[in-house]
């Protein structure tokens, strides 16, 4: 075994030990498994952290928005699992929360306002991709810009759709830690 291989083995074991120490009490078991398997998956941990200190645990609007959970109890899913990139099912929502009976459509046309949130998300994403591309490509044409816009909007449509609806309902429905007890 040469020196480079020894250094690689040492660095991997060192990183694994640091990841194990980091994940004790801070991340879910799912996140710890991902971190151990892939070193570059640290960013996945940001959405799975459960610490109150970071403000991402239950009771936080960020938790409810990112996880697409019921804004009232943070337990029930707003959308059916496994349908994110299904072409005919990504937009289907549950009518009520399975845990606290919170209606996910409090009134007809409730989600018309989420179109503005979706517009803001798409605009921010387009600007980010446009700036990133301008650093990579020296001479950008109108066709290239329109292609980037089209690709970003179409590829990320299910994500922006769900995020915008989750953000919109979180403006109006607030977390209640007693919601599940009250429903039973």
Pick out its properties.
184 residues, mainly alpha, 54% helix, elongated
Topology:
Elements: H1 3-23, H2 29-37, H3 42-46, H4 61-67, H5 114-136, H6 142-155, H7 157-172, H8 179-183
Q: Give the averaged pLDDT, no decimals.
A: 76
Q: What are the segments in which pLDDT stays under 50 over at least 5 consecutive residues?
A: 10-16, 18-53
The total strand number stands at 0
What is the radius of gyration? Answer: 21 Å
> First CA to last CA: what distance?
63 Å
What is the 3D shape?
A: elongated
Order of helices and strands: HHHHHHHH
DSSP summary: helix tally: 8
Major β-sheet profile: none
Question: How does the helix and strand content classify structurally?
Answer: mainly alpha
Strand percentage lies at under 5%
Q: How helix-rich are the residues, as a percent range?
A: 40-55%
Could you explain how this protein is built, in words?
By secondary structure, the chain is mostly helical. The protein contains 8 helices and no strands. The longest helix is centred in the last third of the chain and has 23 residues, at 114-136.
